[in-house]
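Could someone model FE3-S4 cluster with this protein?
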Amino acid sequence: MYLTEKEQRMLNGDEGYAVKKSMEILVALGDIYGAERLIKVGSVQVAGVSYHNLGDAGLEFLNELAKDGRVKVLTTLNPAGMDLENWKNLGISEEFAEKQNMVIEAFEKMGILISCTCTPYLIGNLPRYGEHVAWSESSAVTFANSVIGAKTNREGGPSALAAAFVGKTPCYGLHLDENRAPDIQVQVNARLAKFSDWGALGYSIGKKAENKIPYITGIKDAEVDELKSFCASVVTYGSKPLFYMQDITPSSEKVQPPKDTVTIEDGDIREAYENINDEVSDIELVCIGCPHCSIKEIAEIAELVRDRKISPSTEFWVATSRFAKQLADKRGYTEVIERAGGKFACDTCMAVAPLKGRFKSVATTSAKGCYYSRHNKMLTKMGSLEECVEAAVTGKWS
Ligand code: F3S
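Reply:
Sure, complex below.
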């Protein structure tokens, strides 16, 4: 890969240890994937924040980089393993909290915004159309590429961090227009009746367009929250982190729909539910907010739980960014949800919090949430917000 003189000096260590290490990572990646050069990025989203996933080795790596590493571009963080303020209320141990806080301190020292959300585009890290960024959270990467029209590969935590210290990333993969052409047309004939159907649709398309870029037709309208859920699901279940949706996503008119076509029928959506849902009726955890809830979703939850009580046998979590929670505080939604017995899980989520062994079953609106909950050995139910709230109030899935 060609390096400018300045980049070569960075690689030689002229800008210190973190930049040198970062350049080594970026050059290695560029060489593996055949990048010709580095390109500037407008922002970075760093995943790999939970101590649950990082462990002591990860923490040590971050502390080394934090000694002299300072980010050069706007850099935001993915969810951590706990609510940074309210962790006790969510049953997190002192031991875990201490380590998680050390992780956060390292990121803070690097100059990273402690946003701890997988929806950076809702809290101010919003790239412009066509901008190159280096993001590392699959749902956010898919949203950035498809809904916003920015350009990013699906970075790992270390390569995103490296891009933040250098302000650049190797130019390969989805940074190049020739790699962004759709390879399969997906005609959606199925009716999308409720919110969780978007997760089911993502499952179905992800399976049919495995490792491909789908060009989706047949969808008349989509709200941002629906697209957010779809992005999380479609990439989790198999497709590349980029899709086109005719008349909905900004680049859909600029590319040609491929001839190779598959369809999604009502039966595919039913099958998705059958595969995502387990046989279970007692629900121990209901978690809404994968990806993190927008303020609009929080308002809907507040309306549904108003004057109701969460079952004593169930925990009800609303996972969101601290920024959305602050808006919810101001609008009175927090009070309504907490009065009902619900808990806010800011800064964290059902996949990265240490939940293994704590809950046997979970209900959620999210297909991606179900995927990761199964990794945490939970039985899963996916349904509409109304069905999830009902499960939280009765403790049962009906
Ligand atoms: Fe976000 Fe966690 Fe889901 S990172 S997309 S809430 S698994």
